[in-house]
Design a protein that fits this description.
The complex is a heterodimer of chains A (493) and B (486).
Chain A: H1 3-12, H2 20-27, H3 29-32, H4 39-42, H5 58-66, E1 68-74, E2 77-83, H6 92-103, H7 115-124, H8 134-140, E3 150-159, E4 175-179, E5 195-205, E6 209-218, E7 221-225, E8 228-233, E9 244-251, E10 254-264, E11 270-276, E12 285-286, E13 303-304, E14 312-315, E15 325-330, E16 334-339, E17 344-350, E18 354-355, E19 373-377, E20 389-395, E21 401-407, E22 410-419, E23 422-431, E24 436-441, E25 447-450, E26 453-455, E27 460-465, E28 470-471, E29 476-480, E30 485-492
Antiparallel strand pairs in A: 1-2, 3-4, 3-5, 5-10, 6-9, 6-11, 7-8, 7-10, 11-12, 13-18, 14-15, 15-16, 16-17, 17-19, 20-21, 21-22, 22-23, 23-30, 24-29, 25-26, 26-27, 27-30, 28-29
Chain B: H1 9-18, E1 22-25, E2 28-32, E3 43-49, E4 53-58, E5 63-67, E6 78-83, E7 92-95, E8 98-103, E9 106-111, E10 121-126, E11 139-144, E12 150-154, E13 170-173, E14 179-183, E15 189-194, E16 200-204, E17 214-217, H2 250-256, E18 265-266, E19 276-281, E20 295-299, E21 304-313, E22 316-326, E23 332-337, E24 342-348, E25 360-367, E26 375-381, E27 384-389, H3 395-398, E28 405-411, E29 421-425, E30 428-434, E31 440-446, E32 453-457, E33 473-477
Antiparallel strand pairs in B: 1-2, 2-25, 3-4, 4-5, 5-6, 7-8, 8-9, 9-10, 11-12, 12-13, 13-14, 15-16, 16-17, 17-18, 19-20, 20-21, 21-22, 22-33, 23-24, 24-25, 26-27, 27-31, 28-29, 28-32, 30-31, 32-33
The chains are: A mainly beta (493), B mainly beta (486).
Chain lengths: 493, 486
């Protein structure tokens, strides 16, 4: 019975051999996935054929040592996450083993990493106390560009004003250039607006396969391969997921004539063209100078709207008010954001309520701008005396909120609903014989129209019934007396 | 699976995938609870309600109530949305006909006063802590303690900084809404709850000043180890928390600062998990298997549930962690275990990936009465450890000290992110004495190291019936070595 003893000892032994695959499975695979494609169907960045691994290993070693935070694009897709630093937890030999495994797996064909390389960079970056950003790292270690699959590329520049792709054939080119790097780029144009570009050359297919091509552009473009139009994005507009096109075409190994037509009307201009082979692990290869994919930084839109019967609520960070924001979307496109820090409606707007896409994807960083229009920032300081406290709210059966505020001896209710396209607000005070002064607005452009009506902005007027409004030339206040009820009607025009 | 055949086709796809139960290992049956179709149910809180109802909140802020989650036929589960779009809630319980919810900005008491099935009163019980718009300023809330207080752990800003009042602290909120700052030194919590004795514990994640993730005891007045937010003591005229030496050891620093409470049970990074979350105690009195009174800890990255046996030695909590349940569909965040013995887990992997590859999940685990061969408890003794088992051990094998392998280490206590395992040591099991009933093995160990995690591997100790241990490793955090009695 000696064998079990040997086994038991082995089980207890540390990972002395530094099995990179085993270490990867333990420390990395939850996010990057065992197949290197990124966990949860690629919600996390892939390592398989990642351009970030290309060339020298320093870039990857630094990320593992110190982490990486914020937006990054990998394989044409944007991510905004945090990779925690591993340098303080994993020794040099384990990091080297993991990175060697990563750089030689899933189609990656980069050099192995030695513990000495890790040790050298650990020493060189010992003063670093925060994670890298993608932009900062790219400055230190630019990703080497892979050769383009375009050969014998020429560009022709045309001048003209178009809002759709023109027929370039009858037009006379202003200039013809050879593009030796095989990359198409709008920066080679001689002006920023009202021009067209036509590139011609050969796309060299390394093997016979279905090649997928992807085009995104600002403004229009089309791609013709072997004399047939493959991709087209026409009209004017910015680069976005909507303004992109992607199709596959079977190409035999060898050179295929390719023609790319492009026009720019006004404003920003860019074109992104890439191709890939079939299969989940294969990566996009760029034929354009720009490598920003249409998914870059994009997040899905998740609009929240009230129903005709019930108001919508949205408690999250709303840009323009304080962190304890309570967004309310009333039927009819009347919206406001109530600050539970300042105890006041600080933003009011009309139309669409709010988009939750920012907060309901990835980690939900940042504050969301209101979705609609005619946005007015009503105030930005506490509306009640300092000892006033937020006590919550009630919702009536239609979801209309009444916020509750207390001061010593006093309860104040602040109720809202929509009526005939206006926002109706009722303030009530109950309790002891204490008056409460309430800030109504401080928009910077308040103008008295009559005894009960003030213009708060170009688009918003408030009518106040009761409460003895006072306007000091800058701020508009009212005073709530005990058992008093004051009605404010916010009217957009 | 017969019940599937009669389902409306719209539900069929969802339920067919969901209702295939998974046997975790002998005795524990894991089942996915069908979720409302089309909804994104990234579950952040679970509350057990009267009438076998279960309430959950999602990271999107919706509060749903589920009917039928205890039923034998989960296809009969019914859901209704009780409230919408609250602010990233993480902690909920039912008390006084209300749901009490810890959301990012406040503790809220929610009621349905008109009985229409929708929450209509949202009373702000306490909102005395700071938030500044940083997404990482999470607030995890407990169930009420024996005095009715809710304990809330407030994550640091971005998990690194203190940029809003009381970030990095634990506060208690009384039923009247008073906030009592209770402990300092917190980094990035994942869950909070009570052990069988009613003491409060939370999980804190590996990072700065946390060499490894761990389960920590929130002794009132204690410092939990991360000095980033120490300055907030000035807000309430509390004594200044300790300023530990960077690169030291927890043991060294706590001997300088008695208010530094060491992690009760270290959950060794990588070996046990990577992101511990919920803390609950088995109050089922045996209905959830033989581990009544033990603490269960959720694990987000590894989609697991770990089991913890706690004991108090020389005034400090310490104990052992064992792997327990695994294979959940997403990263676990909240858990609740009913007195009737049903474990509910909720999970999400948005923003933080997990081994379970679904974007979100709601599952239950029930025990069918079969017991696996497991280490039941591991306790410290002045000269070693005592193990108890769920079944009698093979007395000959278990008496062979060569079948127990041990390794001990600790972590750097430092401002850098995490730590390697350091001060490695190899304690040796020199004797193993098996009790008459075969349920207890007393290990005599040469080379115990105070302050170290002690990993014990005993894969080659079978039960008397020849079974292998379902989980053959234990990790004991030996904060204190018991004094010999007498």
């Amino acid at each position: 019975m000696r064998l079990p003893l040997v086994l038991a000892t082995l089980v207890a032994a540390p990972l002395a051999a530094q099995d990179g695959g085993q270490l990867y499975a333990t420390y990395c695979s939850a996010c990057h996935a065992n197949d290197g494609l990124g966990a949860t169907g690629g919600q996390f960045p892939p390592l398989a054929e990642s351009e970030w691994l290309r060339g020298e290993p320093d870039r990857a070693i630094k990320i593992v040592l110190h982490g990486l935070s914020g937006p990054i694009e990998v394989g044409g897709r944007g991510y905004n996450l945090i990779m925690p630093p591993q340098g303080a937890a994993l020794p040099d030999d384990q990091i080297a083993a993991i990175l060697s495994y990563v750089r030689t797996s899933w189609g990656n064909r980069e050099s192995a990493v030695t513990p000495q390389q890790v040790a050298d960079l650990r020493l060189a970056t010992a003063q670093r106390d925060k994670p890298y950003t993608a932009a900062g790292l790219l400055k230190q270690h630019p990703i080497p560009r892979e050769p383009s699959a375009l050969r014998n590329l020429t560009s022709r520049i045309y001048h003209g004003q178009w809002d759709k792709l023109p027929d370039f054939d009858p037009l006379e080119a202003r200039n013809i250039e050879e593009e030796h790097d095989g990359r198409i780029s709008v920066t080679h144009a001689d002006r920023e607006d009202h021009f067209g570009l036509v590139w011609e050359g050969e796309f060299v297919a390394e093997k016979s396969a279905v090649h997928r091509f992807r085009l995104a552009c600002d403004d229009g473009a089309r791609v013709v391969i072997d004399g047939k139009e493959l991709l087209k994005v026409d009209g004017t507009g910015p680069i976005s997921a909507d303004r992109s096109d992607e199709k596959g075409i079977r190409l035999e190994a060898g050179a295929h004539p390719i023609r790319i037509e492009y026009f720019e009307a006004r404003g920003h201009e860019d074109i992104v063209l890439a191709w890939k082979l079939p299969g989940g692990t294969s990566r996009w290869h760029y034929l354009s100078e720009s490598e920003t994919g249409p998914n870059r930084g994009g997040r899905p839109s998740i609009p929240i709207e009230p129903t005709p019967e019930r108001a919508a609520i949205y408690r999250n960070f709303i840009a323009g008010t304080t962190p304890r924001a309570i967004g309310i979307g009333l039927p009819g496109g009347i919206n406001f954001a109530w600050s539970a820090d300042h105890l006041a409606p600080e933003l009011a707007w009309t139309g669409p309520f709010i988009d939750a896409g920012r907060h309901w994807t990835a980690r939900g960083q940042g504050a969301q701008e209101p979705a609609g229009h005619r946005l007015v920032r009503l105030s930005r300081t506490p509306a009640f005396p300092a000892e006033a406290r937020f006590r919550g709210y009630t919702l009536d059966p239609a979801g209309n909120p009444t916020f509750r505020i207390t001061r010593p001896g006093v309860v104040i209710e602040d109720a809202y609903r929509a009526r005939e396209g206006h926002l109706l607000r009722t303030l009530r005070s109950r309790g002891e014989e204490t008056r409460t002064r309430v800030l109504v607005a401080d928009t910077g452009s308040i103008e008295r129209l009559d005894d009960t009506t003030w213009r708060l902005s170009d688009t918003l007027v408030v009518r106040i019934a009761g409460g003895r409004p006072e306007f000091d030339g800058r701020k508009l206040h009212l005073t709530l007396a005990p058992a008093d009820s004051v009605t404010l009607t916010y009217i957009w025009r | 699976m017969k019940s599937l055949l009669s389902l409306p086709s719209r539900l069929h796809g969802l339920l067919a995938a969901a209702l295939v139960p998974g046997l975790l290992h002998a005795g524990y049956l894991r089942e996915e609870i069908p979720l409302p179709p089309g909804e994104v149910m990234e579950i952040g809180s679970i509350a057990l309600m009267p009438g076998d109802k279960v309430a959950v909140t999602t990271r999107r802020g919706d509060l749903w109530i589920c009917d039928g989650a205890y039923g034998d036929d989960l296809s009969q589960v019914k859901w209704h949305r009780f409230a919408e779009h609250l602010h990233e809630p993480l902690g909920m319980f039912w008390k006084d006909d209300s749901l009490w919810l810890t959301q990012r900005p406040e503790l809220t008491r929610i009621q349905d006063t008109d009985g229409d099935g929708l929450g209509d009163v949202f009373e702000t019980v306490c909102d005395d802590w700071g938030i500044n718009g940083d997404y990482h300023e999470y607030a995890f809330g407990s169930t009420p303690d024996r005095e009715g207080n809710v304990w809330i752990v407030l994550c640091l800003t971005g998990s690194f900084h203190a940029r809003s009042d009381w970030r990095g602290w634990c506060v208690r909120v009384t039923p009247e809404g008073e906030m009592i700052p209770t402990c300092s030194g917190i980094r990035s919590p994942g869950g909070i709850g009570f052990n069988a004795a009613g003491d409060c514990f939370y999980t804190d994640n590996q990072g700065v000043w946390n060499g490894s993730s761990s389960l920590k005891w929130l002794r009132p007045g204690s410092f939990q180890g991360n000095p980033t937010a120490n300055r907030y003591h000035q807000l309430a005229d509390l004594p200044a928390p300790p300023e530990p030496r960077d690169g030291s050891r927890i043991l060294t620093e706590r001997e300088r600062f008695p208010e530094l409470v060491p992690p009760a049970v270290i959950l060794p990074h990588g070996k046990v998990g990577q992101s511990p979350t919920a803390v609950i105690t088995d109050h089922s009195g045996g209905k959830f298997g033989p581990f009544a009174g033990q603490v269960l800890v959720g694990e987000q990255t590894h989609s697991q549930v770990q089991r913890v046996h706690l004991e108090k030695v020389n005034g400090l909590y310490q104990g052992a962690v064992f792997h327990f349940l695994e294979g959940f569909e997403a990263g676990i965040v909240p858990m609740r275990l009913s007195d009737s013995g049903t474990l509910f887990i909720g999970g999400t992997n948005r923003g933080w990936a997990s081994r379970g590859s679904k974007p979100f999940t709601f599952e239950r685990v029930r025990w069918d009465g079969k017991t696996d061969f497991e280490i039941h408890t591991m306790s410290a003794r002045p000269d070693g450890f005592e193990l108890t088992f769920t079944k009698p051990v093979d007395p000959d094998a278990a008496a062979d000290p060569g079948r127990y392998a041990m390794r001990a280490w600790t972590y750097l206590y430092q401002s850098k992110y995490g730590s390697p395992e350091v001060d490695d040591s190899r304690p040796t099991v020199t004797a193993a004495r098996v009790s008459d009933d075969g349920r207890t093995v007393r290990l005599v160990v040469d080379g115990l190291v105070r302050g170290h995690v002690h990993q014990l591997d005993l894969r080659e100790v079978p039960s008397a019936g020849g079974e292998k241990l379902a989980h053959a490793s234990a990790w004991y955090t030996l904060n204190e070595i018991p004094h010999p009695t007498r």
